[in-house]
Amino acid sequence: MHLKARVVVVAAWVACRLPEPPLLALADFAGRVWYRLAPERRRRARRNLTRVVRWLADHDMGSSEVRVAARDGRALNRLVREAFRHAARYYVQLARAPIVNAAYLDRWLVVETPGVIEAALDDPRGALFVGMHMGWFELPAMVAAARTGRPAIVPSETIADPALQAYLVQTRERMGLRLIELSGAKRLLKEELLEGGTVGLLGDRDITGGGIDTEFFGAPSPLAAGPALLAMETGVTPHVFGIWRDLSGVYHVAVESVAFPAEGSRRERVSAYLAAEARAFERHIAAAPEQWLAIFHPLWPDLEAALAHVPAPTPGVAA
Prior knowledge:
- By secondary structure, this protein is an alpha/beta fold.
- The protein has one domain.
- Helices cover 52% and strands 15% of the residues.
- It has a 7-stranded mixed sheet with strand order 1-9-8-2-5-3-4, sandwiched between helices. A two-stranded antiparallel ribbon has the order 6-7.
- Helix 2 packs across helix 5, helix 3 crosses helix 5 (73-95) and helix 10 (185-194) crosses helix 11 (226-234).
């Protein structure tokens, strides 16, 4: 096993045997340090969050903190720092995934829309859930696995380190996820749905490069086309979900159905679905934009072009 994989495995082993509160306190400290030491990551997060909070404020959405951040640079910086803190917490809690069980879910996860989830999982055509890189986004898979008795199938990027990849696959399996490689994923996902299984996709980032430009928080962003294509070819209704953490540490998950259009050309139907999916994403992100982990990655081509020509701001100073 490579050194990196050994370090990850040992760190996860330790994390599973220590109480959670001090680990989360350590994650908060690590998040503050990370914010200071990662100027490029901080700069992208700030640009992306600026677009998000301003759009939310313009549409009368989001918390009072979000609305203040839309017009005040210092408040926006605080939100960016919170984003780093939540990202660090995500990695710490993910390391503790092997000890997450039904009792943990009962204590730390609130399903806001139980009827929608039950209806999706009871559909004999299969269940297609579309989420975002937000909160602890793997937790809903555990709910689905416990309800159906079978894992949720999820396509995932393959890490270059085979030992680390094997460890990640193993830990995800314990959470009710069966990871499959991106290559050939479409066929396997389609087969799973046609057999009445559960499929989970993340649609907020264009990882494969085949995304379709869709208006997202007021500007074109390439959203993954996979959910739309699966829905069109299987007849399964996609269910978009969001998950966020409240101040007490409890996670909340909400799910909504986003029907695939029945009329129009193939391209028109896919584009119309992605537009509706983007609206659902916006509603979920409004609950806690600082917990949307995708803000650390390229999302909008126009912002990426602007970032290439602007120097990184000093931490704590509005840019």
